[in-house]
Design brief:
The structure holds two protein chains of two kinds. By secondary structure, chain A is an all-alpha fold. Chain A is built from eleven helices and no strands. By secondary structure, chain B is α+β, with helices and mostly antiparallel strands. Classes of the chains: A mainly alpha, B alpha+beta.
Amino acid sequence: MTHSTRNQELRRGPRAIDQISKWLGRLVALIGLVFLLAPALAIVVMSFADDRRISFPPREWGFGRYVEVFTSGKWGAPTALSIEIGLWAGALALIVALPLVFALKRSTLRGRGALEGSAIAPLVIPVAAYAVGLYGVFAQLGLLGEKFGVILAHTVYSLPLVVIVLSTALEQITPDLELAAMTMGASRIKAWGTITLRLLMPSVLAGFLMGFITSFDEAVLITFLGGVGLITLPKYIFDSVQYAVDPAITAIATLLMVTTTALMLLATTLRKGKK
Amino acid sequence: MISEFGRNAAQTRKTKLCIRRLVKNFGDTEVLKALDLDVSDGEFLTLLGPSGSGKTTLLRIIAGFENATSGELRIGDTDLRSLTPSERQLGMVFQNYALFPHMTVADNVAYGLKVRKVRGAARGKRVNEMLEVVGLEHLRDRKPAQLSGGQQQRVALARALAYEPEILLMDEPLGALDRSLRLQMESEIKRVHRQVGTTVIYVTHDQEEALVLSDRVAIMNAGNFAGLDTPMRLFQDPPNSFVAKFFSDSNVFDAEISDGELRAFGQSARVESDLTGDVKLAARPGMTRIGDLPSHAPGFQLTGRVEEINLLGENEQVELSIPGTQGAVIRRPIGTGTGVSLGETVPVHLAAADVTVMAG
């Protein structure tokens, strides 16, 4: 083998590996996407069926299931409860997260790292294990089956996302802006309100939406802590598939997916829009 | 001389800012060591120094972003240290511009007027005036993100001057700009200063900026003022070897002096100096020359080896190693003197008239 051809070989080797790994990566991503999206798509398709039982592919098409969701009166109460708990959890998570991120990013407070860690912790603790722990605590405090208890649990559960959204946004806002406002005569509060908080506002809204969605979608904590009386939408779906499958679930699931996706897109647009 | 005029003018004006025995410690580290400084009304004073010299800390203490550990800081009879940044009536231009991204150019300039409750027509008029001063009337409705770096810095300047601050503080305002824009902005800042007459305290690590802009320069080193004078005096007659090296890139050598007889490199020459004992001898790169000392002229004759030749546009810079010293740098207009090449051994001389003698 001459010198030049060996050089070519050496060069071709890594390039082939690059190509293969590139295509392998795309294939894996595609398979993942199909596996994640296929059930969701199937649900959407089945929600427009008028068959008496859930089957795929549907034989008769129609809007019967949506009609049932809105007329049966069974879904209204769980939806209202989910929205109520979601709004509270989103708002409370925001109230905790907003001062927290300022302490984390703008102060010289001791133990900032530990504080950040504990705020993010619910993200890494398995939710079932966490729910069992909370069950014990709530039993002692008499919070089981109480709306307030579920709101607290959901607040803690959605806190990590809200904190992450707010702290990444705050990191983009240089402290010099606030200092500039202060040298121009604005009081500390005014500088904070008209500059930093104003710039953070889209992310505050995005954070609130993320908190709301997290609570709205949550099915494990409510199962442990909700008792018999508190039935949120995800809980109601669970309950209704336990003994017999109500075909209207496909319609409600589709509505949920559409709403959640829309809210997520809104949150993302809010965060991106401010740049 | 212009610099002398500037100096005298500064001295006859009344004092604007008065700093006495100002100390700043971060933990056990002394960042500022008992500084005294008087800044005259309308003066353009530059704080120049390497990073970590304390110049930015001093500016931030004046602005109120940091608290001094001890000492006095006054504007007239007003003790600044008892005031918050909002109450100090100062203007500040930041290196990263710090423009409010959600406001238009005009709203940025109006901000200081707005918080001072200047309303309606008066506010609009002042904003227009300031935008005119920096030549940005046509961009008043743009957002900062739509402006170039130079334009943003002009907005920052207009914004800080709009409410007629007592003192304008500038923290390396040209640090983020490229060279040609920097030169342009230097003239712009100079013109605006002449036009509005505000007292300016300007922080930079760039000696060229300090030379071009300042009435006086305070050269900082390790929390002290190593030199405080007009740029021309500091340049031509540095008080110590730090200023000589940092401000005019001078070559500094060890020497000894008694009765005006300067001894160095085993030679001696008569100079005008009252010092005695161990001293430093400094010569700027432009005053250190290749070639033999003219006969009968007092001075020092050396020999150096050419280690590096760099082209600096109009000038070339020749780096020499000279045995027994830390070497020397020579700058001369290209095409003048005898040609030299890398590795060549060449004669070098310092004329006694061109060197400065200093205590340390």
